[in-house]
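for the recovery benchmark. tokens below, seq after
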């Protein structure tokens, strides 16, 4: 689907969770060259659909494939798209090892590190790497200044908040990233799942406010005594579908970890956390 001249959204494959949209990849090109941002799931049908789409678009050859972060819904198809296009892969160094091991199965190296501020000229259109740690430590966004378009991957979504896992994510980093992205002069955000964010600053402010409110709700609940993430989930998330319960508990654990680092809470026995 063409979003604007030289910017196409490729959405193929399954939903990561029931009701949560499948991953978006983007083909971005100028007069000279094209860059593919993300490659979706590792799945034969998805591969063929993506490759057919790229062949049909009247674009210059793909010169680079940027993997925004280590997760399987974004880098799963990288090996196949590399073989299809011959284009080298690039990612942020913090996610390189996970991408090479888990997404590329050790069969291919990521050719280039993309550091904050690195720039690619596509001919009348360019892409700048924006390091956006939090969802993972090596999460990247890409900014096309000529269009004021920011490709946010999973860091900012219109359809929901972003899941920050307790193991590969970091909520304190994520909060700093949301603040930092307010300084990027974006007109629109093209996201990793679902539709675009059309009012970037308002969305960033709403996401920051949501996280602060969630922290406050946890601190309030702990006034009654120590609670585990599962116990907090029952109190804080009402009317949650069963399929989202584990994810909600992971989110609570991530927030508790941040609060513990800030010395606001302390970990006790039986997975419980108490106010300090
Ligand atoms: Zn992700
Ligand atoms: Zn995703």
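predicted aa per position
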């Amino acid at each position: 689907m063409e979003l604007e001249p030289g910017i196409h959204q490729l959405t193929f494959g399954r939903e990561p969770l029931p009701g949560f949209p499948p991953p978006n990849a983007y083909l971005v090109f100028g007069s000279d060259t094209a860059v593919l941002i993300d490659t979706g799931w590792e799945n034969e049908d998805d591969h063929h659909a993506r490759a057919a789409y790229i062949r049909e678009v009247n674009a210059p050859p793909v010169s680079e494939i940027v993997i925004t972060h280590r997760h399987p819904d974004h880098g799963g198809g990288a090996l196949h798209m590399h073989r299809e296009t011959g284009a080298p892969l690039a990612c942020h160094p913090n996610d390189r090892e996970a991408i090479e091991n888990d997404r590329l199965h050790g069969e291919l190296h990521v050719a280039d590190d993309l550091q904050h501020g690195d720039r690619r000229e596509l001919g009348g259109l360019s892409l700048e790497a924006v390091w956006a740690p939090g969802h993972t430590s090596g999460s990247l966004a890409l900014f096309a200044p000529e269009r004021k378009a920011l490709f946010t991957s999973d860091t900012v979504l219109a359809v929901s908040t972003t899941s920050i896992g307790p193991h590969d994510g970091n909520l304190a980093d994520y909060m700093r990233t949301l603040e930092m992205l307010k300084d990027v002069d974006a007109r629109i955000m093209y996201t990793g799942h679902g539709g675009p964010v059309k009012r970037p600053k308002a969305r960033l402010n709403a996401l920051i406010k949501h996280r602060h409110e969630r922290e406050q709700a946890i601190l309030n609940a702990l006034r009654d005594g120590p609670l585990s993430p599962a116990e907090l989930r029952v109190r804080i998330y009402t009317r949650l579908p069963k399929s989202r319960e584990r994810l909600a508990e992971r989110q609570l654990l991530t927030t508790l970890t941040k609060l513990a680092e800030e010395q606001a809470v302390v970990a006790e026995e039986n997975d419980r956390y108490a106010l300090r």
